[in-house]
Amino acid sequence: MSLPDLFSAARRAVRRLRARWPGGAVRRCCLCGHTVRAFLPYRDGRASLPAVALEADIVGSDVESFECPVCGCHDRERHLFLYLQAAGLLPLLGGARILHFAPETHLQRVIKAAGPAHYERADLFPRRAGVHKLDLTAIDRPDRSFDFVIANHVLEHVGDDARALREILRVLRPGGRAILQTPFAAARRGTFEDPDIRDEAGRLRAFGQEDHCRLYGADFVEHVQSFGFVSEVTDHARLLPGVDAFVFGVNAREPFLLFRKPEPLP
After folding, report:
1. Would you say the C-alpha torsion 246, 250, 251, 256 has a positive or negative sign?
2. Are 27 and 38 spatial neighbours (Cβ–Cβ below 8 Å)?
3. pLDDT tens column, 93-109
């Protein structure tokens, strides 16, 4: 490890200890239940964001309150857990068939505890045991195989999102739901992508992160609907009116991006 990396790791370790210090703890992780003084930022918080993230007003993770200093969960896991609870979807996971792409550690535990009939974890480049290698743009599973597909902050990493959305719709049973959280630019109407931008520095400048393939615009919901999904999208204020976003370390501007495969007409 280089000297700058050592300094960075040491600085983060000190931040973690300070954040976990019990004195003055007012914030709470809904996944591990611990009360903490602070959540850890993503990198250096807003100071580390590229110009496009500020200019385009990207709505996504809460970069200032990103990681729980106790269990390590990220804000997007906490927010999705709160949304699942408030929307009454956790009981529906019981007995369901679920396909979960890029499965987050803490959400896996929540889903398993719900008692699904079948829970498949998948990733294009799996790094953990039990996670199957699957390509979101070519899901090697039969039509109408799943009741839920979860892709939490995944689509922005996928080269051909149109193929991915068609595949998700195909493997969902009629009435099945897709959870498709993704960052989007509130200040831009349309999506910006350029397949010629392939290097990390270029993607960081153009899309806000080194491994993103595009920057979705404020029309993301309409974009997903154009593939045949029905929107069940709602926002924090309506679904979680009693949840203090600061206390729980989530971004109140991030909506619950929930979509449904329509039932066939009688």
Report:
1. negative
2. yes
3. 999 999 999 999 999 99
